[in-house]
């Protein structure tokens, strides 16, 4: 299986509109601080699944030369994770979408004109798509009712995507997340800042250690980090277009 981080930015992306901080300047100069909003592409030899549909989806499809996907998994109903679904208009009809009932019903208010094919998924119950096994687990992202992370398995390989979450993840989820080959973790801000809805980079790294993750990619990154080429000397920051193969 192959994963591509299509967007590693937070809800506003980097550069942030109107901001001239060092990371935003680096982004404007074409550096790796440039971050689109959240989407991850998962590929197997049988197909392509998208985890979340970034508001920057059109750009991401064009950059990756993507034309058609086999399904979308939504982690939760926040603008930066679903609103790009409208980009399928007149491109791909009746897309299969997967997620917990609360998330799909919420997002349906915005995307019903596209008539997606809804597949309601239960937390902690594995389902198969494109020959890979996916399992959604509950995380903690107030005030979202049922925010989900995703475990992907193929043979003995295991990838864990935290989705948007703070560090208070339910015990049953932590059990499921153990020993991943790759952990893709929400780390919106540097350690000196604390945000109720998200982990900072220190909390994300502590989670990686607790789970015994072989490899880590921090994502959902805000412009408050130093420019990528500096910060990446100290932290495993993900970047747009980064590919992982297993
Ligand atoms: Zn988000
Ligand atoms: Zn900035
Ligand atoms: Zn969110």
Order of strands, widest sheet:
6-5-4-3-2-1-13
Beta percentage is: 25-35%
Radius of gyration: 17 Å
The topology string of helices and strands comes to: EHEEHEHEHEEEEEHEHEHE
Largest sheet: 7 strands, mixed
Instruction: Enumerate the spans where pLDDT stays under 50 for 5 or more consecutive residues.
Output: none
| Secondary-structure-derived class | alpha/beta
Shape: globular
Helical content stands at 10-25%
Per DSSP, the total helix count is 7
Walk me through what this model shows:
This protein is of the alpha/beta class and 246 residues long. Strand 5 (96-99), helix 4 and strand 6 form a beta-alpha-beta unit. The protein has helices spanning 22-28, 57-64, 79-82, 101-111, 171-177, 201-211, 228-231, and strands at residues 2-7, 39-44, 47-51, 71-73, 96-99, 117-120, 127-129, 132-138, 148-154, 157-161, 182-186, 216-219, 243-245. One zinc ion binds next to helix 3.
Which key terms come to mind for this protein?
single chain; 246 residues; alpha/beta; seven-stranded mixed β-sheet; six-stranded mixed β-sheet; 7 helices; 13 strands; globular; binds zinc ion
């Amino acid at each position: 299986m192959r994963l591509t981080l299509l967007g590693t930015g937070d809800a506003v992306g980097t550069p942030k509109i109107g901001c001239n901080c060092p990371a935003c300047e680096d982004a404007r100069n074409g550096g790796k601080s440039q971050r689109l909003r959240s989407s991850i592409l998962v590929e197997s030899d049988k197909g392509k699944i998208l985890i979340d549909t970034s508001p920057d989806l059109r750009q991401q499809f064009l950059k990756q030369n993507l034309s058609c996907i086999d399904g979308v998994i939504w982690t939760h109903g926040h603008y930066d994770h679903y609103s790009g679904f409208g980009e399928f208009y007149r491109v791909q009809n009746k897309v299969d979408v997967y997620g917990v009932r609360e998330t799909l019903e919420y997002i349906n208010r915005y995307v019903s004109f596209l008539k997606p094919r809804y597949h309601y998924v239960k937390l902690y119950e594995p389902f198969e798509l494109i020959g890979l096994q996916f399992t959604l687990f509950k995380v903690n992202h107030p005030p979202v009712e049922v925010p989900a992370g995703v475990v992907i398995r193929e043979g003995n390989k295991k990838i864990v995507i935290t989705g948007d979450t703070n560090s208070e993840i339910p015990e049953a989820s932590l059990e499921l997340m153990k020993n991943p080959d790759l952990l893709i973790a929400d780390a919106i801000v540097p350690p000196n800042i604390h945000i109720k809805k998200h982990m900072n980079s220190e909390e994300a790294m502590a989670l990686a250690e607790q789970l015994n993750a072989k490899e880590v990619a921090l994502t959902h990154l805000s412009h408050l980090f130093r420019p990528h080429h500096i910060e990446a000397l100290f932290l495993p920051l993900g970047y747009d277009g980064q590919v992982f193969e297993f």
